[in-house]
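hi! just following up on the protien thing from before. the input was this:
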Amino acid sequence: MLGNVWDWCADWYGNYEPPENPDAVVDNPQGPKTGIQRVLRGGAWNSSPGLLRCAYRISYLTTVRDLTSGFRCVRDGLVKL
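and the predicted 3d structure came back as:
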């Protein structure tokens, strides 16, 4: 799923703060509570191969719209068929 468009994330962009306990496992680390720019991840179709990773992030103003950024619809929970 990487390399299509940069995916907008819910987190505000900020400096990464390592956990107080380096041995702790953090499943979904949260960014700052407020900010000016949001996080985008995953790389786009025109990104260099080194940027095509979920762990790589960039920041954009929330008003930016272009051909390389988008979003992915996600649903929590299981779907009963």
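Residues 1-17+30-69 form one domain.
The CA atoms of residues 12 and 38 lie 4 Å apart.
cheers
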